[in-house]
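Dear colleague,

As promised, here are the two records you asked about, laid out in our usual form so they can be pasted straight into your sheet.

NAME FIELD: protein one
SEQUENCE, THEN STRUCTURE:
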Amino acid sequence: MGKRLLLLGGGHAHMATLASIKGLLSQGHEVTVVQPDDYHYYSGMGPGMLSKIYAPQEIRFATRLTVEKQGARFVRASATAILPQKKKVRLDNGQDLEYDVLSCNVGSAVPALTGQEKGLCFPVKPIVSLLKAQQAALRLLSRGPVRLGVIGGGPAALEVAGNLQRLVQDAGARKARVTLFAGRKFLADLKGPIRKRARRNFVRRGIGIVEPGYVDRLSPDKIELENGENYESDLTLLALGVNPSALFVDSGLRTGPDGGLLVNAYLQHPDYPEIFGGGDCIFFENQPLEKVGVYAVRQNPILCHNLQASLNRNGLKPFRPGGDYLLIYNLGDGTGIFSKGRLTFGGRPAFWLKDWIDRRFMKRFKAME
């Protein structure tokens, strides 16, 4: 007798499972996918969409089309609660969906700042928010001098600020100013050679860096630091790192210290073996994982196998995070910074390599549409 598989989110960790829907249906199982948007945007190319290097359709997967084309059910909604004892998920549209096996790939969110609701302020996640920020920035740039702020001192802030400057330049706005508010230290957690290359690039392009100094609050046209300094900003982007979805804490499920769904070596919740998860929303109990997309991609085939095995009562495979991973940062001006292990280099070759890798990833899974 077939079982009910419920997927929350169509992100990187669920790609292989989405590609396997037809096979699951042929085995007699039911598959339902819940996502708040018909599309899933690839985070690795998000900053490039902000600068118009990429069009929105180039960096998104048509989740709804992929699901319905294979004969499964797609529900456009967000989960508000998981009821594990009843094997139900409650949605923000009022529906309760039942499941036999549940997999969560609901991503993460940028922490909020006091006052951000009062002006033009856009968190960098969900990625579609960058498209809204782009459109709002272009409206401002068409009117005259503009002050644009990016809050955050990590890789996401680096890429967003660099690509925002590209947007400004291509719009021909000579009196616009992009300023990065880096907190304690610009790229504090990255290697020295990366920091030097990034800082040199920003100085050359006229991107301001404010450090040290944490942002305390936002007002409609200002960024206020804890030390009392104020900076004018007509539009602000938040790139403060990410926290897992609050869904699991709100549902009373056991989580890791960051609030992510606790999962074991099989990407399975220890208390409820029918619940699985991947990507930024989980806490891998074997070892904490950084919130980088490479782990979701690596979890992809293992999660697919284990979901099918759970439906069909077969053996599970453990997830092994692997060793060093490649990181390439898109600086928005046609250059990038490459880093893996002890090797770091920059320039156009770094961006070309990132662009080739990202486009290959998109092509592979867009074939499902």
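NAME FIELD: protein two
SEQUENCE, THEN STRUCTURE:
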Amino acid sequence: MPAEFATSATTSTATTPTKTMVVKIGSSTLVGADGALRRQFIADLARQAAELRRLGWNLVVVSSGAIACGAPLLGFERRPQDMPSLQACASVGQCVLSAVYDEEFRAADLLTSLVLLTRHDTARRNSYLHARDALTRLVSLGVVPVVNENDTVTVDEIRFGDNDTLAALVACLVSADLCVTLSDIDGLYTANPALDPEAQFIPRVDKIDASIIGAAGDSTTAVGTGGMITKIRASRILMTAGIESVICSGEAETPLVRLARGEQVGTCFVPPADRLDIAPRKLWIALGDAARGRLVVDEGAARAIVRHGSSLLPVGVASVDGDFVTGDILDICDPSGFVIARGQAEAPSDELKLAAGRHQDEIAQNRLLAALAGKPAVHRDNMIVFA
């Protein structure tokens, strides 16, 4: 191959990468209190990426920060609230952010690429697979993809809402071995440590239940959109997918390299040891599109879904929320409202509202519901049960 076509990413490789790490970096970590991009942080990240390569790890970066970078350049003293201004800030800021990533990673002899995604790109199964193929190929070529939501064209209906969800999606797309969130806090606590001096640090989580969800607080920064709750929800999906994840401070010393070497850093979310491989289609159901509605089920149905992986029958549905059509993604909640699964609707919301709580023979005798006779509300083949 001619020298001019050899990627610089290959020149520093001492060990052929066999594992993949996804790192998500929040706006509050990338941008200082003065609104300026922290170039030195990205330079340090690039050096860690080079060391990871030598340790046998590929790296994929999910980077927030476009809006936060663009706002001061356009004269905004704080994050604007209207959509056109946010889109303008993202457009300007993404150029600045991408340029710095390119410069600092090239200085570490690594090549980066820019990948911008929206829910529109992943809600459709074919587009989801194309995104997976592109990212996988970039990684195989020794490139460090820098992924962000395409905030310039994104509106509320197709937003991921936060890059924690996007990072979980990317980790599943590239079959990552580890997903790390660099945050402005060093991990998960039993309560918000900024408000409760008695809050205890949690170094390891083996199961995310309602108590763990309750310990998560909201975002405390002016430049970010996610909080601890979004990170916990993303970690739960990753645990379901069998991917280990970590939440730690972006100010920690070389956290990615230390994690690659097996050291304890931050809070580690460990998937169940007996977790079987999840079909790619079910991961798409969990992450590809936003939930269009919600089914609250009774205790018996919740138990059958979680313990036995059963389909959800209309008789087990206690209530139906939202307007949706057949094939839309739905959250499935236990009687307390805790999300236990996600799946595709086998019928539209108006029919399921009429069928909720009814047995199959009763449905079959109802002229309006006869088409639902013998059908579940959500079939097990189109459902993913969360760890």
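A couple of things worth noting about protein two: The longest strand covers residues 19-25. Residues 1-13, 156-160, 218-226 have pLDDT under 50 and may be disordered.

Best,
R.
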